[in-house]
Amino acid sequence: MKWDILDMSFWDNLSSRTTSDTSKVVGELLIGSSDSGSYISIFRSKDMSFHMLISPEREIKEPLTDPKAAGLKIRILNNHLVEGRKRQDYIDIQCTAKPHIEAFTEIVKEISKLILDDGLDPIKAINMTIRKWKSFWGKIKENIMSENDQLGLLGELYILDDLQKREVVDTLSAWSKSENPIHDFEFPYVSLEVKTTLRSRRQHIINGLEQLETNNGKPLYVASFLASKVGGDGVSVDEMVKNITSILEKEPEKYELFNERLALRGYRPDHDKYYAQNKFNLMNLNIFPVDDEFPKMTSSSFSNPISSRVTNVRYTLDFEGLPNISILSSEYSNIFCKKC
Length: 340
Fold this sequence. Notes:
By secondary structure, this protein is of the alpha+beta class. It is built from nine helices and twelve strands.
C-alpha cells in the first residue's frame, strides 16, 4: 500500500485480519514512489497496540531518539524474523493508546515519506520525526487553532524567521516559553510584543494592563502587522512552520526548542490540513516604541489602586499616526542587538 493513502481507519482494518497461526499477526507493507530498498510495515499486535516496523538496512550505531512520551515507544528487535525475510534487526515504533492514533498515523506517514520517497537514511528519518513530534504528543484533544490564533502565530513566526535570517540575535531563545506570556519575545536588552490585525486600520487588542508595561526596565516595542486573508498567493501557518523547520532540522536542539514553543501556542502538525485552508498576506510591518509618550492603559494610569475584583481587562488601541520604525530601516535590526 502507498504510504500516503494511510489514514486512521486503516488500523481497524488491520485488527480484523486473521491467520491460522494465532502466534502471528498480519501486517501491511508500505511502499513509496522510489525503490529505496527499505522495508516498512504496519500492524496491530495481540495486545491491540499499533506498530511501525522498519528495517534500517545497516548496523544501528547511533542512538535512537527517546520520545519520553506516554503511549509512544521505540525499541530495537535484534535478529527478528519476519515471514518471507531473513532474520535481521528491526526498529519497532509502538503506540500503546488509541487516543493517540491520529498523531501516530501522521508519524508513520512522515517517516515513510522521508525514507520511501526522499531516500533519507531510516535512522535519521526516525530521529528527525520523533524529535519533532515529542513536543506535541501529549496534547491529544488540543482544539484546532482559531483563525485569529493562526494569524497571531503567523506574525510571531514572521518576526522569528526574519530576525534569525538577519543573524543579529538568538531570536528562538527569546521567543516566550510560557503559555500566556506578557510579551511574545524577551531579548536580553529589549521586549517585543507582536500584533496582527485583519482590520483596515492599525488597531490592535491589548490584553491586560501589563502588556504595555516594561519588563525590568527594558525598552518595549510593539511589532504591528496589517494583514488580509487571501487565496493561493498568501502564506499559511503550516507553510511558515515548514519553512522554518527546514532550516532548523539540521540543529537538533534548536529544532526541538522550536517545536516546544509551537506546542505551547496550541499548534499541532496533525492539524496542518485545516491550517492550509487559511492563507494570509502580511503587510506593512512597523515597530512602535512604547515610551512615556505612547498612549496606553497600565496599572500606573490610575491614581487609586485597581480593585483585585477587576480582571481580564482588554481594550483596543489605534496605532495609526504614532511614531514608528520601518522594518526596511537599519534601525530595525539595531533595536535587538546592543552591540550592532
